[in-house]
Design a protein that fits this description.
Number of helices: 10
Oligomer: single chain
Strand content: under 5%
Distance between the termini: 73 Å
Radius of gyration: 21 Å
Largest sheet: none
Order of helices and strands: HHHHHHHHHH
């Protein structure tokens, strides 16, 4: 039986379609399909994208896509996961090469936040976020998938916060919550002010967002002596 529908499954005779966790075939072909799918999803959105269009963009058969991913939604989730892994890898690289703890908490938080704000404002990340926002009414699970992993930035912050609590500089009961709050005050505020990539922020805009967010956060959590 041939595949039917934009997001339908195409099971082989007498067997179920592969699950989203099954990744047959070469990794390079799988990545090429994901990259092609990202381009088509960004142009058309999730609902208006067909598997036929992705197959044409990737230069493969529709059956090859079903063999690798099972259905359109699983392929879109793979696009999300790949974008997040790529962003996390770039963040880890930038933190490793550009960020050095100086012992000055205020300075360190601002330096770390600036790196993460620049990463979260990347055009490809914002474009994918806009697609997910547009589809959340019909497909809320896509938003859940996007929000699921903790960011590298939050992990870096949590380590720094724990150390500063130990040093008596900060008073924090819930380290993970405090890290997430700083993300909201800096990175997500920048995304919001940029209208998720529709408006470019100047270096001065970014500096002000970071400075205001860090200052407010420190007012809440710095130890009162």
């Amino acid at each position: 039986m041939s595949p039917r529908g934009q997001g339908g499954r195409a099971p082989a005779a007498g067997s179920a379609a592969p699950s989203p966790d099954t990744h047959p075939g070469r990794p390079d072909k799988r990545r090429a399909i994901i990259d092609a799918a990202r381009r088509v999803f960004l142009r058309n959105g999730f609902t208006d994208t067909s598997v036929d269009a992705i197959a044409a963009e990737a230069g493969v058969s529709k059956q090859t896509i079903y063999n690798h991913f099972g259905d359109k939604k699983s392929l879109f989730i793979a696009v999300i996961e790949t974008a997040q892994r790529d962003a996390a890898s770039e963040a880890e690289s930038r933190f490793a090469t550009e960020f050095t703890e100086s012992g000055d908490l205020d300075r360190d938080l601002r330096a770390a936040a600036r790196i993460w704000v620049e990463l979260i404002l990347a055009k490809n990340i914002n474009a994918l976020r806009r697609v997910i926002i547009a589809e959340q009414v019909r497909h809320p699970e896509l938003g859940d998938e996007w929000a699921r992993p903790r960011t590298v930035f939050e992990k870096v912050l949590a380590r720094e916060i724990k150390q500063q609590v130990h040093n008596g500089v900060l008073e924090v009961r819930d380290v993970d919550l405090a890290a997430h709050q700083l993300v909201l005050l800096t990175a997500y505020e920048a995304a919001h002010q940029s209208r998720y990539g529709m408006r470019d922020l100047s270096p001065a805009d970014i500096e002000k967002i970071v400075d205001d967010g860090v200052e407010m956060w420190l007012r809440c959590y710095r130890t009162r002596r």
